[in-house]
């Protein structure tokens, strides 16, 4: 399971880049560099939120330290760099986020390997890729529509997607297995749609 956590993101990145393409060489360098810096900081600073028991603090821990924020941050950084002309040429938000997560995933694999917890070592990398592909899919949907109503719906979907990923972690941790699988499936809806629409 530790190897899955270590290898899933880079293998998925390679698969996605081979069959879908996208990305920017300068963006790739920035993603790996900033992801490595993030992994080093996480290693020395530890978690930002105390997980507590099974309530809101556990969900917040999942959102900030485990599932959602580790993916949201590289997407926001990529968007900011794109706005301020940090890249030249086309930028793929998903590839940027996935590259950022490679060193982060390696650090987490080392950190979580002692526990052998399948929620952390298997479920979390899958949720990372769901968010790394799903959120940019919603961003593209919003930016391509030029419609205020669709933009509002897309933003609400991004918030719901990030929250459902953290809820998935919370549900499995709290041993609500059926709810966890349902939330896991919901979190992957934009992920699946992005591949179906891309390959039409």
Strand residues, percent: under 5%
Number of strands: 0
Principal-axis shape equals globular
Average pLDDT confidence is: 87
Q: Order of SSEs, N→C?
A: HHHHHHHHH
Q: For the report, how would you describe the main beta sheet?
A: none
What are the low-pLDDT stretches, counting only 5+ consecutive residues below 50?
A: none
Overall helicity: over 70%
Describe the model:
The chain is mostly helical and 200 residues long. The protein contains 9 helices and no strands. The longest helix is centred in the middle third of the chain and has 28 residues, at 118-145. The radius of gyration is 16 Å and the shape is globular. It starts with a helix and ends with a helix. The relative contact order is 0.15. The mean pLDDT is 87.
Question: What's the quick description here?
Answer:
The chain is mainly alpha-helical and 200 residues long. Helix content is 80%, strand content 0%. The protein contains nine helices and no strands.
Task: Present the secondary structure layout.
Layout (H helix, E strand, L loop, with lengths): L1 H18 L5 H21 L10 H11 L2 H15 L9 H20 L5 H28 L2 H26 L3 H11 L1 H10 L2
Helix pairs in contact: 1-5, 1-6, 2-5, 3-7, 4-5, 4-6, 5-6, 6-7, 6-9, 7-8
Which keywords apply here?
single chain; 200 residues; mainly alpha; 9 helices
């Amino acid at each position: 399971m530790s190897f899955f956590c270590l290898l899933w993101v880079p293998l998925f990145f390679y698969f996605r880049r081979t069959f879908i393409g996208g990305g920017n060489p300068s963006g790739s360098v920035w993603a790996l560099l900033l992801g490595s810096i993030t992994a080093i900081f996480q290693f020395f600073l530890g978690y930002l939120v105390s997980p507590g028991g099974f309530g809101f603090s556990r969900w917040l821990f999942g959102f900030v330290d485990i599932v959602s924020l580790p993916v949201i941050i590289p997407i926001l950084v990529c968007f900011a760099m794109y706005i301020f002309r940090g890249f030249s040429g086309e930028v793929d938000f998903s590839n940027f986020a996935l590259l950022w997560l490679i060193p982060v995933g390696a650090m987490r694999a080392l950190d979580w390997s002692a526990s052998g917890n399948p929620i952390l070592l298997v479920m979390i990398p899958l949720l990372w890729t769901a968010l790394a592909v799903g959120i940019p899919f919603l961003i593209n949907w919003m930016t391509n529509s030029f419609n205020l109503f669709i933009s509002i719906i897309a933003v609400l979907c991004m918030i719901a997607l990030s929250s459902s990923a953290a809820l998935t972690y919370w549900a499995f941790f709290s041993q609500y297995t059926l709810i966890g699988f349902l939330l896991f499936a919901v979190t992957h809806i934009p992920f699946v749609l992005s591949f179906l629409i891309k390959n039409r």
